[in-house]
Structures are given as C-alpha cells and as structure tokens.
Amino acid sequence: LWELMNSYIGSDKRSIQRSIVNHVEYTLARSRFSFDDFGAYQASAFSIRDRLIESWNDTNEYFTTNDSKRVYYLSLEFLLGRLMQNALVNIDVEEPYKDALMDIGYKLENLYEEEVDPALGNGGLGRLAACFLDSMATLEIPNWGYGIRYDYGIFKQGIVDGYQVESPDYWLSHGNPWEIERQDVTYHVRFYGHVKKYNDGGVERGVWEGGDVVVAQAYDTPIPGFNTFNCNNLRLWRSRPCNEFDFKQFNAGDYHGAIGERQKAEYITSVLYPNDSSEGGKELRLKQQYFFCSATIRDIIRRYKKTHSTWNFFHEKNQIQLNDTHPAIASIELLRILIDEEKLPWDQAWGIMYKTFAYTNHTVLPEALEKWSTKLIGNLLPRHLDLIYLINFFFLEKVKQRYPGDNSRVSRMSLIEEGDDKKVRMAFLSIVCSHTVNGVAALHSELLKKTIFKDFDEMFPGKLQNKTNGVTPRRWIHCCNPGLSKLISDTIMEEHTTWLTNLTSLRELSAYSQDEDFIKRFVQVKSDNKLRLQKWVKEHTGIDIPTNALYDVMVKRIHEYKRQFMNILYVIHRYLQIKETPQHERASKFVPRVVMIGGKAAPGYANAKAIIKLINSVAQKINNDRDVGELLKVVFLPNYCVSAAQIIIPAAELSQHISTAGTEASGTSNMKFIMNGSIIIGTMDGANVEIAEEIGAENMFIFGALVPEVDTFRKQLHDGRRDYIGSRLRKVFDAIRSGTFGDVSTIHGMLYSIENGGDYYCVCLDYYPYLTAQEKVDETYRDYPKWCKMSIEGIAKSGKFSSDRTIQEYCMDIWKVSAVSIPKPT
Ligand code: 26M
Known about the structure:
GO terms for molecular function: glycogen phosphorylase activity; pyridoxal phosphate binding. This is Alpha-1,4 glucan phosphorylase. It is an enzyme of class 2 (transferase). The protein is of the alpha/beta class. The chain has 34 helices and 22 strands. Among the domains are: about 65-80 and about 115-365, Glycogen Phosphorylase B (Rossmann fold); about 475-705 and about 765-800, Glycogen Phosphorylase B (Rossmann fold, 3-Layer(aba) Sandwich). N-[(biphenyl-4-yloxy)acetyl]-beta-D-glucopyranosylamine (26M) binds near residues 122, 123, 276, 664 and 666.
C-alpha cells in the first residue's frame, strides 16, 4: 500500500501547479482551462489540505505508537479566522504557492479574499482557543481541540439607519475545503429519559434509559504548527438524527411527524449563541454543551482504550482543559461513564476525573457566570443531576469538617444556589471537579482569589493559578503585517522563522527606537497599512478618511463595561471644542484624528445597541460638518471579525482599552495592537497592567481609577452620591439630548441612569482623567519621533504576550506535558 501512495507532495512549482489543476478537474469537476478566483481558491485549498493530511496522519500515528500524553482543549467556540494563509505560512510554502499561482494567472492575495471567515465564536474567548491551537501545534504538544460545528457562526452585522441589524452567517454555503467529514466517527448521545438505580456491592450505580437519542458526527480540521512537521486536529461535532430509533413512528404512518423529529436532532448544532457576557439559561444551549461533551469524552476514552487495558494511567495520558464553564458537564459525563458503565468504585472514578480536568475562568462579571436550573438539568440529564447532588453532599461534608459551625460558609460554597428555582453554580462545580483552576491575567487571577472564589482559595490554597493570555504572532504579526515582519527580520538579522517562535528576541528592536533609517522604514510600513485600511473603510462604509491623521481605534464586543460609551462622549467633547475654537487657531490646537469604533452587540442587549446607534449618529453629524473638515472623522467599522481585524490592527496608531478597572479579565487585542506598533490608551485593567510592566508605563497613556477606587465610588453611589457630573460632561449630555446628533432617544435611558446613581461602570469617575490622557495623546503625536519611539518600544517588549509563552506555562504548571516531535519524512 505504501508504494501505491503518491506520497509527499513536492514544493517545486510544477508539483504545486499539478496538484492545483488536478483538484480543479477531479475535485471541483471544472474545466482546467477556465476557472475563476473562487475556483482557484478552492483547488489551492484542497491542494494545501492534501499536504496537511500527510502530516496529520503521520502525527497521529506517531502519538499512538509512542503512547504520548495528550491535551484536549474543550471549547464551545473556536474563532479560527481564515485558514489559507495561516496554513501556507506554517508549513512554509507561501512563496512557492505565490509563484506557482502567479505563473498560471492568479494572485495569491486575491485568493485569500475568496475564503469565508469561519466565525464559530463570539470574541476573546473563542479567539484565544484558536491562538492556543496554533501555539500547541507549533510547540509540538500532542493536542486536539474539541467543539461544535455550527451551521451558523456569529451573525453578520449590518448597519441600517445607524442601528445594528443581524443577518445569518451560513458559512458553509460554498462548502468548506478545510474540513474532513468522518462518516465513521459517530457516537449516540442521549437526552431526557429516566434513571434506574441499583446497589452494586455498596456502590450506587444508575442505568439511564429512554428519552431521545441523537448522533454526533465528527468533522476534522487539520491544525498545522509553524516550522514543524507536527499537525494537530480540531474535531468539531455535528448533530444528526439517529436512524434506529424512529422506525416505530414511520411505521405508525406518521411520515411528516417522523421527519420533523429528525430535524429537531439537526437543530442542536445549528447556531452559535451570540452572547458573550450574559447567561440565558436556555435548554438548547445546555443541549449543545452536553451533546459535544458526551461525544468528546467517548472519543477520548475510545482512543485511550486502544492502547490501555486499565484505568490506572488515564489521567497521566490525558489532560482536559475547560475553556470556561461552558463544557463543564464533561467532567460529570466522565464520572458517569466510569461509575455506571465501567463499574469503577466511586473513589477511583472520582480520582480519575479530578486528576484529568482543569478549568479556566474568563470573567468575574456575575451576570456571565453560568447557573443552570436544577429542574432543567434534572429533566434533560437526570443521572448527571444525581451525580452533582452527590458531589455536593461529599464536598459540603468536607467543608463542614474543615470549618465546623460555619453555616454561612457552607451555604456560600454550596454547588447549589438555594431559592425557588434552585440552580447549579457551574463555576463552583468546575473548581471542585478540577485539579487546577486559572485566571487569564495577573490582576484577574488575584481578583478571583479575593472575590468570587475567595472561599475556595482559602480551602484549597495553590489550586488557583494565573496564566496570562497571549496571541499567536504568526497570524497577528507575520500574516496581518508582512511589511512589519520583513522590517523586523531585516533589522535583527534573523529569519522570521526564528523570531516568530522566540518572540522575546524582539527586544533587539529597542536599540533602533531612535534610529533614523529604521524609523523611516517603520513609518512607511505604518502608512502603507493606513492606506490599506482607508480603502477598506471606503469600501465598507462609503466614508472618505484622510491618511494624514492619527488613526485611533477601538474594536471589541460592545459592552457597558468596556466603555465604548466613554469613548464617544469624548469624541463629542472634542467636536464641541473644535467648533468653539476660531478657524485660524484650530490647526495648532488639534491633531487631525480618525476615530474608529467597531464591534458586535449581543442581539438582546439594548444598551449595547443604543451605543452603536449613538456612535453612528455622532459620526453622521461630524463627518458632514464641512466646518470641521478633516480635523475629525468618526467611523463605525461594521461587522468586526477576524479578517477585518487583520486589516484594522496593523493600521492603528492609538488603540483604546478603557474598561472599568476590575472588569476586563485580560483582553487580547491589546497584545495584538502593541505587537503592531499601536500605542495603548488604557486603564489599569486586565492584561494592560502586565503590558505596562513589560513595555514601561511611559510608553502608554494610562489613566483612571484603580480597583479600590472603583469599589469606593460604587459605595458612594450606593450611599446616594450624585455630584459626579462636571460641567464639561454635562455639556456633552446636553448636546446629545438637544438633538444635535438627531434622534438618539434609545440612549436616553442610559444617560438618565448614569446621572441618577446607576453609573456602575464609573464613566463619570474616569471621564476627566480620560480627557487629560487624550490631551497627552495629542501632545505626544505632535512630537512624532517621540511617538515612534514609544510604538517601537512597545513592539520590542511585547514578546511576553506570545501565546507560545502562555502554552508553555500551561504545559509546565497544569498539564505536565512535553513536546513530541514528529520525525521529518524522508
Ligand atoms: C454564555 C452563556 C450563553 C451563551 C454564551 C455565553 C458566553 C459565551 C462567550 C459567555 C461568555 C463568552 O465569552 C466571554 C469572553 O470572551 N471573555 C473574554 O475572554 C478573553 C480570553 O480570556 C479575555 O481576554 C477577555 O477579557 C474576556 O472578556
């Protein structure tokens, strides 16, 4: 068989062209003499996938033969972004493909644009999962990601009359050349039904029967590492109807009814929930969670059993990381299988589960913490609810033992929140069922210990760790900013293949932060990127923006805690100030600016939607005020997504990360922006704190209340303080209300609330310090060499924020796993 295989595709021009043209003819069944850019994209993608499959197969075979310890990353979201350039760069054939395609009349860059953006995630959490996959493959960690293959990813955002309108993202409509459908990898997943319990020599076991059964089918996407032959896997599950179980209904003559039942099964993996900060408690969401967790756990067990006949080594061979509590039910599913199906004693089953799982928390916002009603769980997953109660019983016994008489602690720590509608606190459950828990930035992890997980930190000291987030420099420097990547390679005299996997070597750039030649080239790269963004803005909004202005960017999900609202209040202030200043004084007083804000609002989040409308209304007014001209332009960047980010971030000169201290767990775009030479204006929140530590506070514009001051202000609000709106802020509120920006009545509720003690996110507290920081921005931009020095220092000292560093820490401190390098094929 080996000889039959046309093994290992060459990287010479002819081999590449032959493989592409073959796919045009045999896979696409199109004429090899005429195919458009889309056809060329598809055929190239298949040709690249062939290469990935070769190393994918070798990698998995090698891991199995060597019985390698594996890491499984479970996440309801993977926000991968486009795959073609990433794959070409990682396997180091971007140039050969460019040449090969050029020769037959295609521009590779144009083909990149043909790819849909696979957007199976909301924002930071999903994108983090994608960066982690890239780093794990690059670091040669035996890893698989597991998640859901949604038919509809995050909605597409349109803007109509200034309002957000959502439309479905049916990303599979033109097929997906990157995935491999696994007809043979399927599992049955049960919902509802009932449990029969029996006593098995002192152990209570259950038999779960009845209810509905659906099939989980696997779809694999190869995840190539950078500069390695290793290729990992992302396995996504799709729900399908189960054939065996509906014969009865068909035979009873209810044909339509039976088909309807089948469609219900497919519905489970139809759509990604578009929330990123509030928990809805919807049954379908719980179904999605259990569906993918059950299939995943069975798949992991099946793989383990291929090479092991006892359970003794399960936790030594498998580590499962939970990306937030969304996949938390996976630990209960493992426990259930071990007890009810594998017939292990409770203690052994518990030990295996406990030593296998670890959990990452991504937020301290109470409204985002998952709590599932016991009624809902009991109905959908009756045996799991039994086990959760049992776990809670044993756990609370331990708490009582440890803190005798401390009843309030017992109720605080209970996995069940009491009340009319009892609820399972999924974060607490995840802590109890995991060997390690981590936050995502130093400040965030400290806050976890002091606030929501305080009791747990006291009872299990050392269990809560920090793992500061990172981003992959392959996508977030090299792919999105080729000009900068080349400048870096030229300057530090290293191939990109070297520094991209050892990002702290960027420190060498520090020596050039005042070097004239270097600065000249740096400025050229930035202005090329600004031109690229200018074109993008024109194309997507119709708005003309100048390039000789400061590009000021804020792109992230729209949320009150992130304070896009404060940003737009300042824009209004700046506008009013320009208007008050006589024409001849304006040029010396104001640096020309283009303020760009982008991001999606959860469809049910009224205040976030009102903020979008306000931004658009303000933009409309200012951009059409001839009197202001090019001194100030405001743009709402529609449909912010990974591919847009790759255009926007490299063009930014200033980027805003201005959340209320203590609310943004980490932030990851802050890291992408500094790597691309944008200066941060920001608060001491999330990873900004560590960025300041690395690059020096003097290279950022830091302002605003610290966590303790936020606490104090909130107490004052609570106690009736209302004197916090100064005259300059009052003017801005008045301008909004008086109709200067048209009908923005949707924002009036927020204004009223903020004025009347509802300023929970401290906009008014931080507003004046923010103005001062903004003045400093203008002043610094006027001293352009200084500005460049600050941005270059930022790039030079951004090395810590490579997700390679993050993953190395997870490997050492949590998973205890090391690299397994696949030998290069000969
Ligand atoms: C919950 C329930 C129902 C439906 C959806 C959700 C949900 C989905 C995503 C809740 C939260 C979700 O994501 C939160 C998130 O993106 N958190 C961000 O994680 C980043 C990576 O750690 C951090 O950098 C950000 O600070 C944090 O906000």
